[in-house]
Amino acid sequence: MEETDRIAGLYERHAGAFDRIRGRDLSEKPWLDRFTAPLAAGAAILDLGCGSGEPLAATLITRGFAVTGVDTSQTLVGLCRARHPAHDWYVADMRGFAPGKTFAGILAWHSFFHLTPQDQRAMFPRFAAMAAPGAMLLFTSGPSQGVVVGTFQGEPLYHASLDGAEYRELLAANGFAVVEHRREDPDCGGATVWLARKSG
What is the DSSP string of 100-129? Predict the structure, then answer.
């Protein structure tokens, strides 16, 4: 089993702990503001790796967007369904999720970087297929190429990143232009963030 495939079980086993300790201070707000600024009222947004829906999906819902959330943890998706029953929530792996429609915004915050480099590369055509013309894409990566194995609740937690130049190449090859990129944003917990827009 690949390290990235173990992550689904890890988050399911520790879903309650993840929900309790997930920060709700919304340090991500400036990025969410940039991500949603071009979107029409009520636009459809896909949240890949939505966790328990707090705080990102909940913030988007509060702003009036129609959220579709995807996560591999049945328990975390169950929390989303209980908290926001008017929206769509799926237990699925982002690598195989097929929504059958396109979205005005796609979010993969602190989830995309759990994929192997090969799987990350394969996601960019999927992003393009799920993105409507002019759609916004917001995701986080590592600050540089490599693999880092951290820990969560005493278990190893896999992270990987491509080189920044390769992310730019993959985005461009799949019809996205980089709107803003920040490496280890000090105002967002040190997150390395990519915001891109699909050509219209």
Answer: SS-EEEEEETTTGGGS-HHHHHHHHHHHHH
